[in-house]
Structures are given as C-alpha cells and as structure tokens.
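Tutorial, part two.
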Amino acid sequence: MRRAIALVGLFFWACGGGKAGIAPSPPSPLPSGPAIPVTRAQGPLRLTVTYPAAADTVQPTDSEFILGGTGTADARLSVAGVPVPVAPSGGWIAWIPLPDDTAYVVPIVARAGADSQLLEWRVHIAPRFHPPATAAWVDSNSFEPAGTLRWPAGEGMRIAVRAAPGSIVRLKLRSGTTVPLVPDPLPEEPPWGIRAFGTDTQALHLAARGDRYVGWLAAEPIDSSALLEVSNGTDTARVRWPLVLATLDLTRPDVIVLDDDTARTGTTDSLTVGKAVPYGTYQWFFPTGTKAVRTGIWDDQVRLALSASQSVWVNASDVHQLPAGTPPPVGTVGSVRLTSGPHSVTLRVPLPDRLPFRVEEGGRTLALRLYGAHSDVNWMQYGPTDSAVERMSFRQETADELVITLELTRPVWGYRTRFDGRDLLLEVRRPPAIDPRAPLRGRTIVLDPGHPPLGATGPTGVHEPVVTLAVALKAESLLTRAGATVFLTRGDMSPVDLYPRTKFAEQHDADVLVSIHANALPDGVNPFINNGTSVYYFHPRSVELGRSLDQAISRALGLRELGLGRGDYALVRPTWMPAALTEGAFMMMPDQEAVLASEAGQWRYAQGVARGIEDFLRQSVIGRR
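Running the prediction step on this input gives:
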C-alpha cells in the first residue's frame, strides 16, 4: 500500500438535458459551470477527529486513514509531521503509516492566523501476533477450526494453524491418532477489505510467510485433550487445540424445519438464508416450513444436506428439530400447471413434502431446482395461451435433484415463491408496459434513503442518513415530474430496519427499487486511490439498472466511476423487482462530503438517480425487441 499523504482534487461538471422524461434542471436551478460550489467554512479554529474515534479500534494494517475538521477553510494542518490540505469545508483526511503496536499517538497541529491547536490523538490498534523468541511457537488465535462441532463420523475436514517456519507439526488425539500438518506453500491472503474494495491490484500480491500449516482430520470424537505439537530443532511447543468434536450418526437422520420468526413478530421476511460456507454470502432463500436433514453443527451455524451432492449452512437460531423418526424430505414430484393472472403467471408444483429448493435466474429463464425430488412430471399444463411463458421443460439432473425450467418471452423482471400446503408456487411477474418516449410515465418507483440506524459520518460531521434523505426527496420530485409514482421508505430521521424497507417496496408493487447511500471504506484501504461512484446489485436482472445508475450518477457528480459490483446487501436482494444500491460519493473524502451536504450537490446526485432509472427503463423496452 502507499504510505503517502495526498489529496485528490475533484472536478465536477453539469449534466446535460435533452432526453424525454427527466427535465435538464430541478425546480431550483443548478449552478452553471463545471464545478459544484460548496460553502467555505469561516468559523473559528476548532480541530476535531471524526475517525478513528476515541472508542474505535482499527485493524492492524500497514497504513490507515484519519479524518476530521478544522472549523475553518483557512487552517494550515499537519498530521504526524506531514502537511495535509484542508478542504473549503474545513474537512481533512490523511493516510498515515501504522506502527507495529497496539496504540499510536498521532500529533495533529492546526494553525489559522495567530491561533493554533494541538491534538495528540490516540489511535487504538488491534493486537498483532508477535512470534516469541523461542525456536518453536504457535499462534494460539490461528486454529482452524475451533469451537464446538458435531460432524458425521469418518467425514474429514481441513485444519490449519500458524506456527514457527521449518517445524515438524502434528496433532495428537486421545485415541492415539496422530495427524500430520504440512507447510502451506501459498501466499498469505490479503485483508478482506483490500480484496473486496481495493482497486490497486499490487496490494493483492503478498509473499508466502512459511508459517502456516494445513492438514486433514478424519472426524472422530475429540475433547479438549487434543494436543498440537510443534518441534523445531531441540525446541518443542505444545498447545491444546481448542476444538470439541462429537460425531453424528447419519443412519438416523435429524430432520429439521426452518423458520426465522418463531416468536411470530411479523417483523421478519420469513426466509432463512443458506450459505455455501459458515457465515458466507447468501445463495439460497428458504421459506418458512422448508425441511432438510441436519449433517453438521459448528457453534451457531448448522449444515444441512439438500441432496446427495449439495449442502448449505444456515443460522442455528432458524433451525427447529422435528420429532425423532421423522423421515427426510424426499419424494416424487408430479405434474405441474401454469395459471395466468393480470400481473403475473404462477407455476404450481405439487410436492411430497416442503422440499428445499433454489430459483436460478437467467436472462429469460427461471430454473426451479428441487432437492430430494424425483420426477414424475408426465403433464406440464400451460392452460390458455399466455404471452409470458414460451416453453416449460424439466430434467432429472441427478438422482435426487429435479430442475423445472420456464423459458420466458421477455427478460426476467421479478418473481416470488411460497408454499401453499404441500404445493410450491413460483409467481413470475410480467414486465411493466413502458412507453419508450416517456419511460417513467405510469411507473411506480420506491426510493430508499439509506440508514438510519448507523450510517457514515464525514470529516466535518455530516451524517449519511441526512444526505440520503435529502437526495431521495429531490429525486422524488424529478421522477414525479416525469410521470412516475414515487414512494420513500422513510420520510424523516426515524430508524427503519432492513426488512420493512424491502417489504414496503413489494407492498407497493414497485417496478424498481433504488437504495441511496454515501460511501466509506474499511480499515486499511487507501481512500485516495479508491474513491468515486459505485453501484451494487444482487440478481442478474438488476445488472442493467445498476450499470445505468452508475454511469448517470458519475456523470452527474463528475466523479471517477469505480463501476458496478454484485454485493450481498439486503436492499438489493428483493426478488419482485429490479433493485440496486447506489454509493454516489464518498462521505469520508472532504470535498465529496461538502458536495453531498450542499443543495447543488444533492440535486446533482438526485438527477443522476432519476436519469439512471429512466435510462434503464428505456433500455428495457429496447431489450425486449
């Protein structure tokens, strides 16, 4: 990573008009010229640090950002002895090297005229592991896995630990089994924040350290007596492996039912998410009542067998065991039928039980994968001719996975699923009727002003939820003028949880959902080379919405286009409509914070949102031809 302190100059230019729908200027005219003017801070000298706050602990990376304000644009500032520019808003940000320690007192000096202030700001750093002076050592925080596990007898698992390079490493079990661990030759993994958000690929090239060892453990009962032995020359270190493992007998399967709302509060989405790895990204969405076989437990994560070849992990709090003797959810799937409605077409699939399933989305296809299912689909009834579904088909992909595919006449716009008794219903939404000359006319748009709770805070204290609400209200006025019906998920600063926001969009049958945010970075990612406009989507159908928003907003604000990303965000996971989450600018960058806080900058952001939605709708008409 770069260890330089710099300031990025930001340039802005006005969005042009000319397209039908969105007016080239909002009710309050935007300023002319290429730049968005911001208010110049003229207050008294007041030196502050916004991040890291006194209670924060930053990650132990080689460099970190620190940001705050001076109260006046006329201040001269130095951080750790290096001059740092002060923005017209009085905000500042610096990129400083971190010592190999748990604390760093950063001297920050500000001067304005005859006045001066000094802050000796203490930055708390998460501890790093420092190998002891002995030849043989073990990092006691590096054991993988650790905790409490229940695992099928005889099934293996990968284990890993960090220990002194050049050592002989082995795990000794009470049973007398000795498990060897060998050096891992691969390079060290970079911090997750750099992997996810860093644009400098050089930061991903890390050398191998030679202190990581890996092995393969066949599941057998293990208690706290499992001992790791590390021998290096004449020196030996012995540490107990923090793992307790009990075995499962899969000949007597534990059948469970999934329900994320056992208290019946009505405040959840009645879906349990499935992940390929514990605590991983969401890939499956199981409605309440789905049944499966439990095949593993790791602390608060539970592994479920969906079929002979597919397993998923879910939260233990969503799993409820059925009485002993309950058979696994498997069986034969019979004939299916389509039913047409004015706004959707529904596939009804009879099931022997509430089998787990997954909907796999293509450009013009929806494939329903049923786990534990055997096909007896001798009839596929279309009913009266419907313009939405061109063809149905099925295939028995494996012995216990059945795939039913709907080929649509138009690109996927949205769908939803639910159980009706033993039947599974897949409701496919019809695309809206869009006028290419006025794409927004008659459309229903839901705007989500991101946060509260939480939200980023800029160098001078501007709070993200305040900005996102202001931008959403301005975008609402632009979209309404172009003929759309617009709803906001919040109209004041009251906190709103995530699920009520997505439920709100579905209840209003929104054609499009856009969640409006301002960005920040995780620790250790250089903000001076990783800032600009970005947009995130989750489902394939939302790619073009995200791309249109990204291009329109970056043009409107004149910022670098960081580009499109697929992100595991709750607000882009709704299935009933295309959805995207915008990160128009970086709240942590002083110049961008000032733009986001200004009326002119908020109008520009709002115009980018409105233009992006309009462009997406217009392109969706072209894409159907």
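The first helix runs from residue 192 to 197. In part three we will examine how such features are distributed along the chain.
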